[in-house]
Design brief:
By secondary structure, this protein is mainly α. It has one domain. The chain is built from 13 helices and no strands. The longest helix is centred in the C-terminal third of the chain and has 28 residues.
């Protein structure tokens, strides 16, 4: 029987965590393991599968930007190049994680803690130094910047590594304005999430089928719709925060969230899995 409450919780976890620097894959791994008793291999693949819910949020919120691709060559080039390098880096990492790292597990809370420390440190440095922060946007970015963002997004294929945290913090370090960093990160998520969803179906079909049987199709539909609706609200709030706040405030805010969730994940991961392995 479908557990509607658990499905809603799963959707809320995806809908909130995808847009914050806290690795939605990690949160889905922990939530689906606790709520539906999924083995870690299935929970990991399911984390990529659930990207489809957040894709709905991004497509809905940025529908005008997507339509503008017909005549905005700069934005189109950015998305194409970022997506290519995301795939070049992300596909091998996903394969390695799904196959090889089964025998060499690591605590998935650690990458979030590291990212949190970096973001908080960056915010404090900007706040209390004489660093001149450039406030550019896509117009100031060049090919090498696109490639770096793509690599950063590809690294997020690893469990515990946040896609939005990696891409937003990378662009902030490049001098991109906070609101533009969020917008460009979220736009880059759209083709990346399609790829992640496809990869989960192609390379991890058995694990995804196991998750579908455990959560049940109706439960998955409820989780996906919940994730999409929640994501729209979270995106709207974060973009407003980025527009009205100084860059150091955004850095420290994101870093504090990543630190807090990373510590919780570091504590919960061994309890969820015993010895945290991907199979």
């Amino acid at each position: 029987m479908v557990n509607i409450f658990y499905s809603i919780i799963l959707g809320l976890v995806q809908g909130v965590s995808e847009w914050l620097p806290i690795s939605s894959k990690t949160q889905i791994i922990i939530a689906s393991s606790l709520l539906f008793s999924l083995p870690i291999s299935a929970a990991y693949a399911f984390g990529l599968f659930m990207e489809i819910g957040s894709l709905g949020s991004a497509v809905t919120y940025f529908r005008r930007d997507i339509w503008s691709l017909l005549h905005d060559r700069r934005l189109l080039n950015y998305l194409v190049i970022v997506t290519i390098f995301t795939g070049i880096v992300g596909l091998p990492l996903y394969y390695v994680t799904d196959r090889v790292l089964q025998q060499n597990p690591y605590n998935i809370g650690i990458p979030m803690i590291i990212l949190g420390v970096v973001l908080v440190g960056m915010g404090l440095y900007i706040r209390y130094s004489r660093l001149a922060v450039r406030e550019g946007g896509l117009e100031q970015m060049r090919l090498k910047n696109y490639i770096i963002v793509g690599i950063a997004q590809g690294i997020a294929a690893l469990p515990g590594v946040s896609r939005s945290g990696m891409t937003v913090s990378t662009m902030l370090l490049m001098g991109v304005k906070p609101d533009q960093a969020f917008r460009l990160s979220y736009l880059a998520y759209i083709p990346a999430s399609l790829g992640a969803f496809g990869v989960s179906l192609i390379l991890s079909s058995d694990q995804v089928n196991m998750a579908v049987q455990s959560v049940e199709p109706v439960g998955i539909a409820i989780a996906i719709v919940t994730a999409a609706l929640t994501g729209i609200l979270v995106i709207s709030y974060l973009l407003k925060l980025a527009k009205r706040s100084n860059i150091w405030v955004v850095d420290i805010f994101l870093g504090a969230i990543a630190l807090a969730i990373g510590i919780v994940a570091a504590i919960l991961a061994p309890q969820v899995t015993g010895v945290f392995k991907f199979s």
